[in-house]
Amino acid sequence: MSFVVQKKGLTLFDWINYILVALISLACIFPFLYVFSVSFTDPKVYVPLKFYLFPEKWSLESYRYILSTNSFINAFKSTLFITIVGTILNIIVSFTMAYGLTKRSLPGHKWIMGLVIFTLVFSAGIIPNYLLVKELGLLNSYWSMILPGLTNAWSLIVIKSFLESLPSELEDAAQIDGCSDLTAFFRIIVPLSMPAIATFTLFFAVGHWNAYFNALIYLSDSSKWTLQLLIKTLVIDSNSVAVAQAGASDESVVPQETIRMASIVLAMVPILIVYPFLQKHFAKGVMIGSVKG
């Protein structure tokens, strides 16, 4: 028996959907095009408040300027350190703790799971978190951006659900062969969890890279500002302190608007470069924990 699939013509509903999706896509794409265009526009031909879809005259002057400033380089180094170290620690703590929570024989298992779920529903708030970081002596330290958020309840629950979906027979066989729980975790669980690890690596890395609010309240030393906090100063503050601290001899050479747009593009590029390498694993791991059985 053969089945023939007949193609039907597009209905009015289909056309409306296509048009709406196209309009929404354009609304999302145009701001990126504008930022990209202004950042590559020659400062000599730049006209304020003029919409640029494509640069009238291409130039890398704004990028040369922003990359020559001490403030941007320091912010980039700070964000890079926080992202790399923070993501590695996030993955280690989240997966090891989630693996421990999959063991029903763990002493106090129900109490620990109850505390995890409690933090998923209730939060202490900004002031208690700030006081905690202050009492730990982490203010104006990169660790204030890393240690308080080593893991979170949502990540733990999703990772735990994923680990529980793995065949338990593999771990049982490893234990029969003499493997300890730690050996079985690194030799069996971790290789099987690469899609989940890649997915949460991307989640954690993007979260650290875009960290803004915690940097705003914990880092008062401008030399330790993150990239997003520096861009906030460039974009929002009219008399930009960051540009004034940049160390350039003549600020009037490059308009501040082109500097802002160049800094935004430079902040997006690293994530855009890393994402394609994780796309293969991300596509497999995005549905982790959604299906059990």
UniProtKB/TrEMBL annotation:
Biological process according to GO: transmembrane transport
Report the CDD domains cross-referenced here.
TM_PBP2 (cd06261)
Protein species of origin: Paenibacillus xylanilyticus
Give the superkingdom in one word: Bacteria
The record's comment on protein family reads: Belongs to the binding-protein-dependent transport system permease family.
What is the membrane topology noted in the UniProt record heading this document? Multi-pass membrane protein
GO CC list = plasma membrane
Q: Which residues form a coiled coil?
A: none
Q: Which residues cross the membrane?
A: 12-36, 80-99, 111-130, 184-206, 259-278
* Listed PANTHER family: ABC TRANSPORTER PERMEASE PROTEIN MG189-RELATED-RELATED, POLYGALACTURONAN_RHAMNOGALACTURONAN TRANSPORT SYSTEM PERMEASE PROTEIN YTCP
Q: What is this protein called?
A: Carbohydrate ABC transporter permease
Under PROSITE patterns, the record lists: ABC_TM1, PROKAR_LIPOPROTEIN
Q: What residue stretches are annotated with the ABC transmembrane type-1 domain? A: 76-277
Q: Where in the cell is it found?
A: Cell membrane
Q: Which keywords does the record carry?
A: Cell membrane, Membrane, Transmembrane, Transmembrane helix, Transport
Which SUPFAM superfamilies does its entry note?
MetI-like
